[in-house]
Amino acid sequence: MPCNCNNTPPPCCESIFVTNTVRTGQRGPQGPTGPTGPTGPSTGATGPTGATGPTGATGPTGATGPTGAQGPQGIQGIQGFAGIQGPQGTTGATGATGPTGATGATGATGPAGATGPTGPTGATGATGPTGATGATGATGVTPIFAIGTVTTGAPGTTAAATITGTAPNFFLNLTIPQGTTGPTGATGATGPAGTVGTTGATGPTGPTGAAGTAGATGPTGPAGATGATGPTGPAGATGATGPTGPTGATGPTGPTGPTGP
Question: Is the entire prediction scored with pTM above 0.70?
Answer without folding.
Answer: no
